[in-house]
């Protein structure tokens, strides 16, 4: 463990960011050829690829739900995505994250339009540098849009951490490992709906309330970038006058 | 492949086009699709490369782990190649353990690398008989548009050639990372894999997904060469795959054609990474 | 109303507030109307809808679709029609005489991997869509080229009152059938010709929402003839 401070005396973090500053985020939509929808995100040094397949027939059939689509998320980290080699087989952490990610995206999808089908969301973390579940959820929203699956809203996600007593927005790996707490949130801004909320560490009630405000601001920043990515990808050259 | 639905209209189309030396995507029977090689995208890996052939995309990562040697080679390190078929790469990939296609691909790529002795595993020993380097070469199949083997083999090769290994200091029984990086112990031999598909009575280089759906069988051949020394060229691995067959003459023709194409791929790799070790 | 006609919107975009009607790809929450899909917002009288830029194909009775056989069961075939739901084609809707499953196998008439042009006779989301090949022009595809495009682009490939598809047929001397499910069958005298028309169809799909498209495609086909 390093004795270097994570936040300098004038409020600059070890990667040069201010306390409420996001890392550089870049979204790309429609990057894979064999999916119904896909997206890629570079979020600081985190790199994640998401592919959505569906709605399609559920396999096995007995798992299908009679009145809605089932959603399944598969969050996996590549063996070379972290500092120490990781076996490709899914760990318990990946299993838990798959579940909370599914539960973060589920509320946004109009599953009742596609009874008896499956929507599968495959997430491959190629490089992990903190807040991978937030980047994965944000990219998965775009992949769902690319698949043309009807949704109530986009889901934006980000984490707030407590580092050396101060609240910071968009937690990077080093801050997560050496800080006092990490709190990721997923949010549908048009609905003011929180679809993922987790916390580990120790914070006061007041810190919690301040974190929620900071998280909403951060999610709105991500939401804006998600919309810009969609507009850039689906940019229409000229207005259409011959639409049938 | 025997589980796939083979569209009848497509096989006829492909064979008819090939009679005039053409393919559905405009290539000749002996052309590769467009190849893109990107080196070093994954900083946390000791080496990485992404190769895209047509739409097929594979990212390979090289990671070093300290482990136990095999009992029959106590002073040598270990190279381990694995392949993960990510479900979003193709509708027929199911989540779960690697199936027989993934296992075959990993072993075919491994064979090309291992038989060429590209990595000098005797230089991967840390504490003789006790601790050695395990060099993981992990191939992640991210998009399947045909010819996974050549794409994965190129990605694994470029990841290895561009990697740097960690430096360690041995203090008694303890092994400490110094934080520095060393060049890889490469022998200078570089294996290049070329795959052909037999459809009807013709041989197709770099089969696309549709061509693979209708092929009779495929042949992958790995050629190794030391740098530019063409006299050192040897065949170091071969694999016939899928349920059909090819005649001995066709096999001979295939190897001849593959040899020519391997030199093209070799130049491409040399332009991206240092092949001389 | 919160948008300009044909503005690009995303799921969750607030389109309008007040007394409107929710059209395609729009949902209502109290008196607010939101887009549920990525597309171009549209207002006609009071109807707010979104023209989709991405979407899956949901069968409608009367649609013509091109399906690929994926399974043969005793008296029917299951077809992949590029929809969340697989189509069912009963033998009685494909053959002129009833099929006795004791005496013959369905595979003899239609095997796995073969393609058919069929019409949708019924669909509600509780059961798979049922298809029929009874009409003229429907049945097994024996020759030609089949390509897949995004189903949301089919209206553009057909054009207003069939203007685009009519132009394609006239300028290329090929037979063309556009499935509502985003599959297009092209049959010409040579494979090269079919490949060229296939490229034109893909171009239409890519540039569906630009103006001047019909003329550009016509030029593309005419230049091929030379």
Which key terms come to mind for this protein?
heterotrimer, B: about 280 residues, alpha+beta, Ribosomal Protein S5, domain 2, 4-stranded antiparallel β-sheet, 5 helices, 12 strands, C: about 230 residues, OB fold (Dihydrolipoamide Acetyltransferase, E2P), Ribosomal Protein S8, Chain: A, domain 1, 3 domains, 5-stranded mixed barrel, 4-stranded mixed β-sheet, 4 helices, 16 strands, about 20% helix, flat
Number-wise, the strands of chain A total 10
The neighbouring-strand order within the major sheet of chain C is 8-9-10-12-11
**CATH fold node name of the largest domain in chain C:** Ribosomal Protein S8, Chain: A, domain 1
CATH architecture of chain A: 2-Layer Sandwich
β-strand percent of chain C reads 25-35%
Distance between the termini of chain C: 50 Å
Share of helix of chain A, binned: 25-40%
Number of helical regions of chain C: 4
* Structural class by helix and strand composition of chain A: alpha+beta
- Large-scale geometry of chain A: globular
Summed over residues and divided by their number, the pLDDT of chain A gives a mean of 93
Largest Cβ-defined interface: A-C, 43 and 39 residues
CATH top level assignment of the largest domain in chain C: Alpha Beta
CATH structural architecture of the largest domain in chain C = 2-Layer Sandwich
Question: Would you spell out the secondary-structure blueprint of this structure?
Answer:
The complex is a heterotrimer of chains A (244), B (277) and C (226).
Chain A (H helix, E strand, L loop, with lengths): L24 E5 L7 E7 L2 E12 L12 E8 L14 H14 L11 E11 L4 H15 L9 E8 L2 E4 L3 H6 L2 E8 L4 E5 L2 E2 L3 H29 L11
Parallel strand pairs in A: 4-5
Antiparallel strand pairs in A: 1-2, 2-3, 3-5, 6-7, 6-8, 8-9, 8-10
Chain B lengths: L7 H11 L16 E5 L7 E7 L2 E12 L10 E8 L14 H16 L9 E3 L3 E13 L4 H14 L2 E8 L2 E10 L5 E11 L2 E4 L3 H6 L2 E10 L2 E13 L6 H25 L5
Chain C lengths: L7 E2 L4 E4 L3 E2 L3 E4 L2 E4 L3 E6 L2 E6 L11 E10 L2 E5 L6 E4 L24 E10 L2 E6 L6 E2 L4 E4 L5 H5 L4 H10 L2 E4 L4 E5 L3 H16 L6 H13 L1
Parallel strand pairs in C: 3-7, 10-12
Antiparallel strand pairs in C: 1-6, 2-5, 4-5, 6-7, 8-9, 8-11, 9-10, 11-12, 11-13, 14-16, 15-16
Helix pairs in contact in C: 2-4, 3-4
